[in-house]
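Sample pair:
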Amino acid sequence: MKKTLIYALLLFICASSLTACGDSADYSDTYNPATDYPYSFHEQGTGIHTAISDNGYYFLNGSYIYYMDKAAMKPVLLDNRPDTDCLHETGADKSAACNAYVNKEDYPGFLAYSDNHLYTIESRNVPGKNNENAKRFELIELAKDGSSRKSKLTFDFPPDAIAIHRGVVYYSTKDFNKKSELEYKIMQYDLQSAFAKPEEIYHGNLPAGYIADIIPYGSHVYFLEPAKNMYRTMQYDIQNRTISRMFSEDDHKNSTIQGIFNDKLIFSYFYGDPDDQQAWLGYSADLDGNQIAELPIRRDFLSNFYASGNYLFSRPVWFYLTTEKYQHIRHEMSVYDTNYQLVDKFDLSFLPLDHSFIVGDADYMFVRYKQGQTNMIKYANKKDIGTGHVTFQTLLETPDN
C-alpha cells in the first residue's frame, strides 16, 4: 500500500512538471507560432503589446485590452458584458468592473498569448514599512475572453524586459535596494510547472549595466546588455544552460540584434560616431552568432532593421529626426525582398518621435504612438507592398484613463 501511494505521488509530480521526470522541452530552432515568442511583433524593452492567437490579435492600448478577429479587422474591448462601459468606468477597482482593464499604472505595458491564455503585468499596493504602501508588480494570467484572471508571479521590482517562449517566462530585474549595488539579473519561470520557482540564469555585473531587451528564438534567448559607454549582445543557450557573448568581444564594437530573416540574425555594429560609414552597414549571422556576413544593402546613414516573412525593412534611426544636420534624411521605410532587392518605400513622417513600429506578420504591420492624451494604433496591409501605395489607417484610439 505504501509503495502504491509513493508511485501515485511520483506520477502526480511528473504530470505537474515538465522537468521533474524526463525532459520534454522543445530545443529545436524551428519556429512554432503556437508556442514560440512572436519575435516579429517585438518592441524593445518590455517586449510586446500585441498578442497573436490562431484567429486574431490582442492589443494592449493604453490600459485596455482589445481583441480583433483577423477576418473582420474590427477591434473590440475584451469585455462582452452588455452592462459594462469600460472606457467610462470611474470605480476604484476598474479591473473588477471591466475585464479589459489592466492596472499597469506607470509600467510601459506587456501583453502575451501562450497556451490559450493571455498574460499581462499589473501593479498593486501592499503594506510596507512605516505604514506606507509599497508597490508590487504581478504577472497576471487571463482567460482569452477576459472573463477570469489570476496572479502567476510577483516581482519585487518591475521587469525591464520580459518575454514568454515555449511556456517559460524570461524577465530581467534590477534590485533598487541601496545594499544591492543595483545588481541586475535575468530570471526564468516555468508557467507549465505546478512547483516552479523563479530561477536565475544570468547575473550581470557591468558598471551601470542593465538588461534592455530579451528576444527568445528557438533554443536561444538573446538579450541586450547596455552599460557605461558600451552595450553588447549576449545569448543564453536554453538546452545547455550556457551564456556567451555574440558577434564581438570588443567593447568598442557595440552590437544589437534587429531582426530574424531567412533563419539568420540581422544585426549591426556601432562604434560611437553616427558619421562612421562602417556603422551604416548591416550584417547577418547564423543563430549562434557565427558565419557573419555583410548585408548586400547600401545605406548612407545609420539604420534600424526589421524582418518579417518575405521582407526586410529599414529606416533611419531616430537620432536623425532630432538634429538639423540630418534634415535631408527622409523618415521613410525601405522594403527589401529575400534577395535584398529594394521593392518599395513608404512614408513615416506622420509619426511623432516617440513611437513603436511593429513589423507584424504576413498580413499586417502596425505603429503605436501617443497623440495628446490618446493612445493610437494604426495598421497597413502588406499586400500593398510593391505598389508604391502603402498607407497606415487608424485601428484604435484609446483615451488615457
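The longest helix spans residues 2-16.
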